[in-house]
Amino acid sequence: MFHSMGEGTYVKQGERSNRHPEPVEGPAARLHGYRPRSLHLGVDTPLILVVIMLMTFGLVMVYSASYDYSLLTYGSGAQMFQRQLLWAFLGLGAATILTFFDYHFFRRLAVPAIILTVAALVAVLVLNQVRLGAARTFVAGSVQPSELAKLVMIIYLSVWLFSKREQLADINFGMLPLAAILGLLGGLIYLQPDLSATITIVFLGGMMFFLAGAELRQIVLLVIVALVIGFLVVKVNLTGSERMTSFQAGFNDPINASYHVRRSLEAFVKGGWLGVGIGKSETKLTGLPFPSTDSIFAVVGEETGVVGSLALVGLYAILFWRGLTIARRAPDMLGTLLAGGLSVLMAFEAFVNMAVMLNLLPFAGNALPFLSSGGSNLLISLSAIGILLNISRQSVRVKDEEGRLFSAVVNLRRRDRRGRLSRPVSPAGPNKEGAPR
Length: 437
Fold this sequence. Notes:
Layout lengths: L9 E3 L13 H6 L2 E3 L8 H30 L4 H21 L6 H22 L17 H19 L11 H16 L4 H17 L4 H21 L1 H15 L6 H13 L24 H34 L3 H25 L17 H47 L16
Antiparallel strand pairs: 1-2
C-alpha cells in the first residue's frame, strides 16, 4: 500500500498476511514489532538534479552558439548539436554503468588504465594530427586523450595513495613517486602542446596528495617546486609567455587585453542584467573565437545576462558541494580520494573557464563541463558523475547495514533484559484471584 510522504509504512516481522496493516508510527511501531520500509533512492538526488539542469541548459546553449558555424561548415545548423546529443547519450550510458560498478574494482583496473592512457598520449604525438596549431586528438579530431588522462590520473592516484597511505611521510614513497607520475603525464600533454591541461594535471595531483593526508612540509615543498617549474615553463614556452603578457596588459586596462578576451567582455556588456535572449547573441556572429567551446560562457553572459551567469555559477557551486559531501561520507579513504579528486576536477575546470572569459586569469583552453561542445569532455564529466553516484550508493548501503546491526544489538539487549527481569511464578501456584502468590 502506498502512502504519502511523511507516513511510515511497516511490515510486521515474522508474519505474512494478505491484509495490509495500518501505518504505525513512533514508539507504537517498535512495540508491535514493525520495521520501516526505506523510501530513499540510494543515491545523491541533489547531484542528479544539478547534472540534469546543467546538461539541459548546456544542450540549449550548444545549439544556440553553434548553429551558424554548423550551417556554414556542415550545411546543417543542427549538425554540431546532434553530435553533442549523441555524446550526451553515450555519457549517460557510461554514468549509469559506473553508478552500479563498485569503485573498489578500480584497484585492479588502475594500472592497466594508466598504461593505456600513456599509450594514447604517445599515439597522439606519433600520429601528429595538427588542429589549430596543436596535436591533441586522433580519430578525425573526435578523441582527445588529455581529457581521459585527467580522469584516469585521479583513479590511479586514488588507488596509489590509498595503498601507500602509511608511507606518505617518507619522501621516497610519497612525493618523489608522485612527482614522477605527474611528470610523465604532464610532460606528454605539454608536448602536444596543451599548457592548460598540464597545469590541471599538476594541480589535481597536488590537491589529491593533500587530501591523502601528506605532511605539511612535503606539501609546501611540492608547491614551491611546482611554482618554480611553472614559472620557467611560462618563460620558455612561447604560448605561455604571450598569454601571461597579454593577461597583465588586459588586467591593467581591458582595452589592451587579447582580442579573445575583449570580444568576451563585449558579450557580457551587451547582455546586461537579463540578457538579450536565447539565440539572439550578436557577438558569436561577429568574430567571438570558439563560441560553442572555449567561449560558451561569454555566449551565456550575452544571452542570459548577469542573472543567468550567476545562476550557472550557483549550479557549479552546488555540484562541488555535493561532491565534497559524498567525499566526506565515503565508506573509506579510497572513496574519499576519488570523490574529492573528481569534484575538484569539475569545479576547477569550470572556475578557470569562467575566470578566463572575465580576464581574471591568463587565457587557458579549459572546457566548461556539461556546456562546452566536445564529446571527450562531456563523456569524461558524466563518467565522473557516475563514479560519484556509486560512492554515494556505497555510503548509503554501509549506513543501512550499520543501522540494521545496531537495531539487532538493541533488540537482543532488550529481549535479554526482559528475560532477566521477569518474575518467576511461586511454586504454590496462583491464588484464588488468579494472581501469583
